[in-house]
Specification:
Number of domains of chain A: 2
Oligomer: heterodimer
Structural class of chain A: alpha/beta
Shape of chain B: globular
Distance between the termini of chain B: 31 Å
CATH class of the largest domain in chain A: Alpha Beta
CATH architecture of the largest domain in chain A: 3-Layer(aba) Sandwich
Helix content of chain B: over 70%
Order of helices and strands of chain B: HHHHHHHHHHHHHHHHHHHHHHH
Shape of chain A: globular
Number of helices of chain B: 23
Radius of gyration of chain A: 17 Å
CATH topology of the largest domain in chain A: Rossmann fold
Strand content of chain B: under 5%
Helix content of chain A: 25-40%
Largest sheet of chain B: none
Distance between the termini of chain A: 20 Å
Number of strands of chain B: 0
CATH superfamily of the largest domain in chain A: P-loop containing nucleotide triphosphate hydrolases
Amino acid sequence: MLKITDLKYQHNNTDDIYEYSMSVKPKEIVAILGQSGSGKSTLLDLLAGFLHAQSGSILLDGKDLTQVSIETRPISILFQNHNLFEHLSVQKNILLGISKTLKSSQEELDKVKMILKEVGLEKFEHTIASSLSGGQQQRVALARVLIRREPILLLDEPFTGLDADTRIEMLDLVKKITHENNLHTIMVTHELEDCERIANRVYRVENQKLVEQ
Amino acid sequence: MLQDVKRLKHSLLPGGFVSVLLLGFAFLLFFILFLSQEDTSVTQLDSRVFSLLQFTLYQAFLSTLLSVLVGLALAWSLAHQSHFKGRSLLVALFSSSLVLPTLIVVFGLISILGRNGWVNQLGIYLFDHSFGSYLYGLTGILVAHVYLNASFASRSLLHAFESIPKEKYKLAKSLNFTTFQRFMYVEWPALRTTLLSIASTIFLLCFTSFAIVLVLGGSPAYNTLEVAIYEAVKLDFDIAMALKLALIQLAVTTLLVLFSSNFRTGVGNVRTSTLIIPWSEPKHIKRFQIVMISLFTLFFILPLLAIVVDGIGANFTRILSETRFIRSFFTSIGLAAVSSILTVVFAILLSDTKRNFTLKYRLSDKTFSKPLNTLVAFSGNLYLAIPSLIMGLGFFLLSQTYEAPLVLWSAIALLTANILMSLPFALAVLGPAMQKTAQRYDKLVFSLNLNPLQRWVYCEYPYLKSSLGYVFALSFCFSLGDLGIIALFGSDDFSTLPWYLYQLMGSYRTSDAAGVALILLAITLCVFILLPRLFRSSVAKDN
């Protein structure tokens, strides 16, 4: 269980204090709704460690993540843009999720092949990421999420700009991945339809606070 | 906070070390200069020193004013005449003024405007009249400064013109603006900031100009502080006087650098825009623009052409077999190669460290970030505050204190000066590029926990490749053509191509000088044009 308790954050140069409390169970998708600038992405930045909370705690199965550095937090993130290194191949983009050396092992390469099959991109292993469509690029990013096997998945409006069919396809893929891998998924969006399709619960950011719908 | 610093240590420490090294060097230089004073006469401003300071400021002011005016008129003309053949080649040629060895430019200008130059020969041929040797003195200094700096200014300003959204022109046209109104309300607001930073840069460059004043100044009445320091050390052996002048110059340049803040002038590898400004010019304006472009092109190309024409007739068999030429050639190439490699490495490390203090997901919100950012920026721009002659004087005094072969001191002094000279330009190119890459990929790189080597190979290098090639070529050419510190350390045993050329010119071996000038010009242009091609990257275009 992911438990966020009284997580407080104040941006520089503003008086607004954001306060977040929520919980996410394994296999659960929680959607965060809110207007632009309401503080949805700030929550994800706090969870990922890009921003530091003034107080409060983030617990995963009882283990405190609040002081854990970005790179060691058990989290995978999908952003709206720049999820891939566009000049690298699909294979390299996925490998960067697990490989810590310039030369990858055969075992790692086999893993990538397997994951690509899972997301339906086996034909594109050696394709340069920039030549893929928007939907395919997000699939590659999701494939990297799968290969990393981190228990928390954060989605920061990653399917904005995709056509309706691809969007539905991607949402279903997120749902499948979350279920099959016991992920705790938090999805920031401003599309009510997205929430209705895959979210188990929905929170709305109102007056810098999370309110469960 | 400590957690963030620890997380970014691979990015903070190497550049931090370089920065401390550079600042330490500056401190050592000040210390040596300060220690070497024998009395308190440094603070006395006698009439000779005062007139030197006055003339240095005067010529820098006039040069800046003329360069900016000509550069602005040229950029404006080029921006509105964007459809003629060879335009991009012309802009690229003007860009090369940045790397042209100053002495080559002076040599070319003498060939055109000197006593026996093309203009006088034409005057005698057509009207039986010679204009004499009008080039030496303030006129020559101004002409050479405008030659080098107006083309530099025009390129940066052209970029500013081309960055104006085309919709603004359409709006102005729909409001029936005149050409003057268009300039005042559409173009001037976009140019103002660039113009200010270009003017401050040009002023600094002209204030510390050495080779041009040395050759074209003509008499002590037209000496600048920089040349007077050289003469005090090299000709009069008056170290006390050199120190006095050096400290005055240091004080003024430091003040100027502080006032002009960062070195922000765009020196990137700018491609010209092919977008046509949606405005058809009135005939008389169009005529003025065409005349402006033609006249400046002629002014820019003729000296280069003269070097080629005069150089071709030189006896290359003799030049190439001379021991001093061979020695100078290899010294120049060796120093340029080492200093350009070190410049690129230093610029990467400094830019990497500096971006930590400005980026959102790094240390930008920490209280110490702003002063540290300024300090790192200042360490990379030291050359603007400490001109090479002063640096040379510092090394000269060090060589007197610590015994080592003079050739070794000379090589160290030249390498240091060349690196410091190129660093502001290298940082101006690489800094924004590295900032942009980090802005784009920081979150992804941090979340994937890529190590520094992976980050460099997969994320930074592909995007920086073409900028690296440009910076490498730029610093190579700067080093190759510099006639600054070598003027103090040059000897029969230690010489570079510009110093060798200067000596040939001084001993009136004009034909050999023309040959060496042509060789130097050819190497410079080849390196500047060809080297960046080796680093071409398809990725960088999208960045």
